[in-house]
Amino acid sequence: MNWFRSALLSALVTLPFAGSLRADEASALAQKLSNPISDLISLPFQFNYDQNLGASGQGSRWTVNVQPVVPISLNENWNLISRTIVPLTRQDDVTGAGTSQGGVGDVFQSFFFSPKHPSKGGLIWGVGAAFLLPTATDPALGADTFAAGPTAVALWQKGPWTVGALANHVWDIDGPADISNTFLQPFAAYGFGQGWTVTLQAEATRDWVRKTNSVPVGLLASKVTKLGNQPVSIGGGVRYYVDSAPNGPSGLGARVFLTWMYPK
What are the structural domains of the chain? Predict the structure, then answer.
């Protein structure tokens, strides 16, 4: 857990050194961050805490998700958006009292083909493929199974509002675990100006093999600012599990994030 706390502390101590952007520039960057398939290169570090895990309900988990987003211009009309999630996890008392595991979890990789311009009705969309890669360094942190399937995202941005949803479904291709999981992330974000954004979102997962659900709902606030000359977004919030799989997290969780942005 020490490495997680050190990373979180490093993120938080940067807050007093944050600079400022022009109000219009900060708001424009904040709106791009609310769009999962915008043309903005970003590198989010997402710090998560969950509790009440394991058969005893006494387990806890700390996860740092490193989530680079890289848009690639294919031609004058289309982008290819690469979204990667690399989980770095530390958990205690999850597999049993007095046990602990730490390391890299399974990497989740998505690719979206997306038009560079919204439709006439203002729809922004992307479709592609998602892959679960068996990269876990400990059996308790992953499924040891390669899985793949389709993914899609659709959203509208009008004024201060961004409303949409991201979804994927993956099936096991090779490995010891049976996987058939649907993920749905509806979201609504409101920009208050000067780079401030409040987002309400769910991250629902349906496990069709085990017939279980995990549905955390989060309320997050963020601010686009500068660290030196580097545009960043700093924020955090709480999550509440309205439904949870057996031995999964329940109750309240927390999230803090620091996103490095590289506008063109």
Answer: 2-11+24-262 (2.40.160.40)
